[in-house]
Amino acid sequence: MPTRKLWDHTIDMKEEFVLRKGRVYLLSREEREDVHEFILKQLRRGYSKLLKSSQMAPVFFIGKKDGKK
Q1: For 3, 14, 61, 64, which has the most beta carbons within 10 A of its beta carbon?
Q2: Contact call for residues 8 and 43 (beta carbons, < 8 A)
């Protein structure tokens, strides 16, 4: 697991911050399962943490030469 850094801290949004609804990218069932598996793996390893923010970010798949995502 990576060592903790000075910049590992909570990001508090300003009170006037307005959530923005982003564009929805439709994923196939396989892609949704891949994303879910990836997120769970990162949480188990401690590389990611659940956020309190309800702001979301898109997920993109980048194909590799061997055909994996």
Answers
A1: 61
A2: no
